[in-house]
């Protein structure tokens, strides 16, 4: 896997235009995330936390590069706690390769105490066609390579999505629908290989504030979320969830954000049913 990772990283770096680094116009933003995780009814885990530093740099028009580094700790009830480091790098081209299209390519590296997914690498590609202020549609493809594990596990995920704007409550709202298909190629305590789920979100802009609610139903295992920046690499079968978030723009390029999520899940292979509640607070700054 190390050779594949190096080849892919070299390719990714080679397609990042020099304009991103040397552009006369340079746009950048950074965000700090703090996350608390609570496992309700779990016989395996207590709680956990995660801290993430995120940076986005681009030429203010067509090209941007994203980098995120996250550190996570999960506290277990009767076994050693888990420590994990995630590093994500992505490049996005907007309205340059093709008009009204975005193309993103990236990788997500995992170093963890979890023996099944340690040294894991996730490769992701996303493309979206959009009509500004009207609608958009696209496809995300993710390949999770855990070949350093005892099972040599691989996971494929495809996420088609469709979004549109409409009038409601005297404002313009945005609806986004995503269908997840996940396939794993090895038995890792669960014989089921194919997983399907449907996610629906609704966003609402009000002055300097933005609000979003979402829900999903179905089944997910080893899912890749948030465009490749979040990977659910532990052996948990997720069964559905609800979320709400809000953001508020302050002066001087500052933005505050909060996210509250609630998911139903089962730890595998014991099928220990539990719930997962996450609270995420964030502070962003544009430069």
General description of the model:
This protein starts with a helix and ends with a strand. It is built from two helices and 16 strands. It has helices at residues 2-14, 18-22; strands at 27-40, 45-58, 63-76, 82-94, 101-112, 120-131, 135-146, 153-168, 171-184, 194-206, 209-221, 224-225, 230-231, 236-249, 254-267, 272-286. It is mostly beta strands and 287 residues long. The model has no long low-confidence stretch (mean pLDDT 92). A hairpin with a 5-residue loop joins β3 (63-76) and β4 (82-94). A 14-stranded antiparallel β-barrel has the order 1-2-3-4-5-6-7-8-9-10-11-14-15-16. The protein has one domain (2-286): Beta Barrel (Porin), CATH 2.40.160.40.
Question: What's the layout of helices and strands?
Answer:
Layout: H1 2-14, H2 18-22, E1 27-40, E2 45-58, E3 63-76, E4 82-94, E5 101-112, E6 120-131, E7 135-146, E8 153-168, E9 171-184, E10 194-206, E11 209-221, E12 224-225, E13 230-231, E14 236-249, E15 254-267, E16 272-286
Antiparallel strand pairs: 1-2, 1-16, 2-3, 3-4, 4-5, 5-6, 6-7, 7-8, 8-9, 9-10, 10-11, 11-14, 12-13, 14-15, 15-16
Q: What descriptors fit this protein?
A:
about 290 residues; mainly beta; Porin; 14-stranded antiparallel beta barrel; two-stranded antiparallel sheet; 2 helices; about 70% strand
Number of domains: 1
Instruction: Round the mean pLDDT to the nearest integer and report it.
Output: 92
| CATH architecture assignment name | Beta Barrel
Distance between the termini: 37 Å
Shape: globular
The CATH homologous superfamily is termed: monomeric porin ompg
Biggest β-sheet strands, sense, barrel: 14 strands, antiparallel, barrel
What is the gyration radius calculated from CA atoms?
19 Å
At CATH level 3, the topology is Porin
Tell me the β content: over 45%
The structure class reads: mainly beta
Which CATH first-tier class would you pick?
Answer: Mainly Beta
- Can you list the strand order of the major beta sheet? 1-2-3-4-5-6-7-8-9-10-11-14-15-16
Q: Flag low-confidence runs.
A: none
Strand tally, please? 16
């Amino acid at each position: 896997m190390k050779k594949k990772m190096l080849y892919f990283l070299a390719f990714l770096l080679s397609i990042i235009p020099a304009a991103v680094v040397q552009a006369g116009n340079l746009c950048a933003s950074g965000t700090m995330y703090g996350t608390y995780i609570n496992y309700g009814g779990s016989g395996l885990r207590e709680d956990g936390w995660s801290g993430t530093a995120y940076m986005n740099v681009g030429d203010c028009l067509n090209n941007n590069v994203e980098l995120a580094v996250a550190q996570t700790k999960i506290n277990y009830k009767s076994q050693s706690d888990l420590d994990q480091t995630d590093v994500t790098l992505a490049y996005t081209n907007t309205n340059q390769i093709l008009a009204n299209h975005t193309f993103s390519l990236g990788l997500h590296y995992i170093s963890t105490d979890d023996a099944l997914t340690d040294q894991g690498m996730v490769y992701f590609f996303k493309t979206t066609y959009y009509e500004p202020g009207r609608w958009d549609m696209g496809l995300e493809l993710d390949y999770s390579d855990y070949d350093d594990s005892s099972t040599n596990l691989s996971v494929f995920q495809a996420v088609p999505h469709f979004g549109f704007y409409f009038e409601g409550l005297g404002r313009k709202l945005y609806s986004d629908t995503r269908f997840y298909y996940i396939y794993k190629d090895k038995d890792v305590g669960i014989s089921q290989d194919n997983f399907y789920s449907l996610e629906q979100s609704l966003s609402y802009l009000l002055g300097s504030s933005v609000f979003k609610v979402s829900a999903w139903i179905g089944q997910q295992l080893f899912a890749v979320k948030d465009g490749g920046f979040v990977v659910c690499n532990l052996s948990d079968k997720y069964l559905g969830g609800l979320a709400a978030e809000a953001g508020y723009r302050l002066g001087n390029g500052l933005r505050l954000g909060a996210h509250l999520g609630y998911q139903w899940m089962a730890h595998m292979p014991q099928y220990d049913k539990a719930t997962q509640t996450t609270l995420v607070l964030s502070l962003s700054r544009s430069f």
